[in-house]
Amino acid sequence: MERLCVILLLVSKTLMVNAQFNGFNCDANFHSRFPAERDISVYCGVQTITLKINFCPVLFSGYTDTDLALNGRHGDAHCRGFINNNTFPTVVLFSISLSTLEACGNSLVVSTAQGPNAYGNLSLVQIGNIAGYIDTPDPPTVISYLPGLLYKFSCSYPLEYLVNNTQLASSAAAISVKDSNGTFVSTLNLLLYNDSTYVHHLAIPVSGLTLKTRVFAAVKATNLDRRWNVLMDYCYTTPSGNPNDELRYDLFFGCDKDPQTTVFENGKSQMGRFSFEVFRFVKHKNQKMSTVFLHCVTKLCRSDDCPLLLPVRMAA
Ligand SMILES: *[C@@H]1O[C@H](CO)[C@@H](O)[C@H](O)[C@H]1NC(C)=O
Ligand SMILES: *[C@@H]1O[C@H](CO)[C@@H](O)[C@H](O)[C@H]1NC(C)=O
Ligand SMILES: *[C@@H]1O[C@H](CO)[C@@H](O)[C@H](O)[C@H]1NC(C)=O
Ligand SMILES: *[C@@H]1O[C@H](CO)[C@@H](O)[C@H](O)[C@H]1NC(C)=O
Ligand SMILES: *[C@@H]1O[C@H](CO)[C@@H](O)[C@H](O)[C@H]1NC(C)=O
Questions:
Q1: Mutation to probe ligand 4, out of 192, 194, 278 (largest number of atoms < 8 A from CB)
Q2: CB of 197 closer than 6 A to ligand 2?
Q3: Please, what sign has the CA dihedral across residues 272, 278, 279, 281?
Q4: How is the chain split into domains, by residue range?
Q5: Which of 256, 253, 248 is nearest to 298 (CA)?
Q6: Domain 21-158: which topology?
Q7: Which positions fall inside the ZP domain (predicted)?
């Protein structure tokens, strides 16, 4: 008799919880709990930041999807998320476009911190950090029996990259709980053109380019939020594809410039432009052709910050 009662109690409790999850992809055994840190994932992309929140513990806590909003903007429908029932568990998705960050109260802070530099080594570099939170509204009462939910997130993007004159493959960003890192390197390309109009790409003949041919080069950002400008710090050449090759010839480094190199535009738009004359590496003297690999250490800066980062003589 006693045992029967216990079973009945258990069954009725399970039914109650299942009713609460009401057809969403939740499992009463796993999700009858309040949210934890693992219930948010952050994807720091090139154009958007995507946040995924496990919806089941939100339901268990007594809230619905419309109770969750970015940075306390509960009155603003476009600062709320979207339910996605196609996953287990059901998630609420928030998508933040990097070009309209401020619309839902997110902000970008550029700071100097330890991070990977252009060569992947840790050093002091500029980092763009976007941070914010998702929470539930405060009830209009003095006390509440529902816990307030708060999910914090951040995305860090290093702002210094090494760009080669080979097309860079697009890179996947890391997925992690709460804090995550992204990169804009896939938006940067080092392109070669045949004249100062920067319209026609340079076609390299099979026999190679004639020495002293003027080559027009550009580090160009594509699909990158308009707030960033491209600033070339250091462009150099190596006889091999290895950007760390000890043998190198510098085209320009801050104010120091090879006499045949001209910098046309730097830090003023999403394209940095310069030209130089074709030369050969003397170590290739026994070869028919000398190969030259071009590399540029490039920073992204906000238009207001760029003049501060430019070498003094150029900014003046
Ligand atoms: C998700 O599933 C729930 C429960 O079946 C349903 O009420 C809701 O409308 C669905 N939402 C979407 C976006 O499909
Ligand atoms: C990067 O770090 C490695 C290992 O410490 C070092 O050998 C290399 O010279 C560094 N490269 C640059 C460009 O600083
Ligand atoms: C982000 O990058 C920094 C610097 O490289 C590293 O210390 C940190 O662990 C990374 N964070 C994540 C979540 O990957
Ligand atoms: C660059 O290429 C275009 C198209 O092939 C050509 O019309 C133009 O004359 C070239 N410019 C130079 C300087 O060779
Ligand atoms: C630059 O190009 C070389 C050879 O193409 C490649 O090995 C290297 O990884 C590239 N560097 C970066 C930072 O993409």
A1: 194
A2: no
A3: positive
A4: 21-158, 161-315
A5: 253
A6: Immunoglobulin-like (2.60.40)
A7: 43-316
Q: Which of 2, 95, 103 is nearest to 52 (CA)?
A: 95
Paired tokens of 228? 């960033």
Nearest-atom number in ligand 1 for the CA of 83 is 13
In the chain, beta strands by DSSP E:
40-44, 48-54, 69-70, 82-84, 91-97, 107-116, 122-135, 150-158, 160-164, 175-176, 179-181, 188-193, 214-221, 228-238, 249-253, 256-257, 262-265, 271-277, 293-302
pLDDT digits (tens, 9 = 90+) for 200-210: 988 887 777 88
- How far apart CA 44 and CA 51 sit, in angstroms, is 9
State the pTM of this model: 0.75
Q: For position 6, what pLDDT does the model report?
A: 38
CATH topology of domain 161-315: Immunoglobulin-like (2.60.40)
At residue 28, the 3 state secondary structure works out as helix
Is residue 82 in contact with ligand 2, taking CB distance under 6 Å? Answer: no
- Closest to 300 (Cα-Cα) out of 203, 219, 213: 219
117 lines ligand 3 (CB under 6 A): no
24, with CB counted inside 10 A (0-12, 13-18, 19+), is middle
In this structure, which ligand is nearest to the CA of 180? 3
Task: Tell me the per-residue pLDDT of 42-63, one tens digit each, with 9 for 90 and over.
Answer: 999 888 999 999 999 999 888 8
In this structure, are residues 161 and 221 in contact, taking their beta carbons and an 8 Å threshold? no
What percentage of the chain has pLDDT greater than the value 70? 86
Pocket test for ligand 3, best of 156, 181, 183, 185 (most atoms within 8 A of CB): 181
> What number of residues does the chain have?
316
pLDDT at 124: 79
